[in-house]
Amino acid sequence: MNLPNRITLSRIFMIPVMMVFLLAELPFLPEPIVWHGVELGWGQLIACIIFVVASCTDGIDGYIARSRNLVTNLGKLMDPLADKLLVSAAFISLVQMDKLAAWMAIVIISREFAVTGLRQIALLDGAVMAAGSGGKIKTVLQIAAIVVLLLNNLPFEIWSFPADTILIWAAVIVTVYTGVDYFVRNRHLLKQSNA
């Protein structure tokens, strides 16, 4: 359990804390903030900060692992799983809060776990599937969409359109595209695993 793996584990532990602030009615929190006519609860704001911090740990643990030669099989397994759990928890919470259509969350979460499964098959064969530029764009779009939805779209607009609408649709489209691309580029792994 080296430093990068501990950082990854901390990301997993932040998930239930984020969900408590997001979904539970906590009596000790002050009254909601009203900004530009939009109400934002302190629980949502704190949950959003936790989500952003947890998202940042993804890059930090990977950088430390590579730069200090601390890459482990445990890290290779836990890191993508922690990412998927964090994003899934956020999207499922947003569905419960009526801020996101359930089908969008299902499409995104299904792709995430399908690609993670493909990566695990690759690991069993001794291959490592590095994240491509499309995957990184997908991650940035998903994080941006979650943050804007958590902040009640304060006061974000893109070309006079609500930022949450544009970002979530962009995230869904890029998520589907990169998922299909992963499977097309790595279909040989599925053939090898069947053999």
Automatic annotation (TrEMBL):
Main location: membrane
Alphabetic keyword roster: Cell membrane, Lipid biosynthesis, Lipid metabolism, Membrane, Phospholipid biosynthesis, Phospholipid metabolism, Transferase, Transmembrane, Transmembrane helix
UniProt subcellular location: Cell membrane
EC number: 2.7.8.5
One GO process term, biological-process aspect: phosphatidylglycerol biosynthetic process
MF annotations from Gene Ontology: CDP-diacylglycerol-glycerol-3-phosphate 3-phosphatidyltransferase activity
Residues annotated as transmembrane: 12-30, 42-65, 139-160, 166-184
Pfam families: CDP-OH_P_transf
Topology versus the membrane: Multi-pass membrane protein
GO cellular component: plasma membrane
Task performed by this protein: This protein catalyzes the committed step to the synthesis of the acidic phospholipids.
Family: Belongs to the CDP-alcohol phosphatidyltransferase class-I family.
Protein name as it appears in the record: CDP-diacylglycerol--glycerol-3-phosphate 3-phosphatidyltransferase
Species of provenance: Saccharibacillus brassicae
